[in-house]
Description:
four-stranded parallel β-sheet; 44% helix; three-stranded parallel β-sheet; 12% strand; 7 strands; Rossmann fold
Amino acid sequence: MAHGTPRDRAGIEPFYTRIRRGSPPTPEQLADLVRRYDAIGGTSPLAARTDAQVRRIAAVLEAEEPGRFDVRFGAKHAEPSIEEAAVELAGTGVRQIVGVVLTPHRASIGSEEYLDRAERALGSTQDPPRFVRVAQWFDAPGFVELVASRIADALGGLGAPGPEGRATVLFTAHSLPRRVIEAGDPYPEQVVASARAAAEAAGLDARGVSWEVAWQSAGRTPEPWIGPDLLEVLRRLGAEARAMRTRGAVVVCPIGFVADHLEVLFDVDIEARAVAEAEGLEFSRTASLNDDPAFCAVVAGAVRAAAAPPGGMPGAAGTQPVAGEVR
């Protein structure tokens, strides 16, 4: 399951209206979103990236257990919808469906909303199949190692900092309203846990590289969102480097995102880079996971771990994951 994105320029306004629960954006809001899409080439590559991820996950599952899995995709704000995909899959006669959202961490207004929508849709079908939720997979075998390898590559691409240089890795994820966290949502703790594990796997302490978590892409609403904000952290790091008369460098690792899309290509690559460079910081960003075969194998492994063994349920006709991305 995935957030979805417009596949062409004509789809931007309907997409924005859907995100706003049917309320059309103002001309100023629409112009701002179009401006950001224009800055990354006119449209987001997310739709194509998600399509490639779904195909690759399906191929991995088929290679590991031929004939057992049928992979379908549903989006929150695009077609096919989560409900359409779930009902269509149930109509094939399967007795168990595994729901997975391609975001590593669990959040009540993130991944859980997707899983809830799929479960409700399945509950409306005749003789509903059993629904198994993959609540989160940030701790699935192989995930942090993939992130760590990308951190090492990004650090290697920085210029030699010299004896007085300071490098920092900033792990980022999409901010959420603070009220969600105050209600006990596990999301921030999971983001920090995955960042810590990736930092350890990358050996940042041994490299003399510091790390911290920052939050990005907060909604433009009056209520407070989780912080510190990525841009604020970059300004602080720049000020600290100047005060210490050191050469600062930063690697942004968007650990909460699994594909290139607007929040990475604009919010990080354009907006955050501009702030970092204005602060005198050398800037790099870890490569997105996209449809890397090793990444798709991680997700496939999470699906297989959640699925009942073949023949483990009376009348089981197979295990079907509904796969995709949120951001």
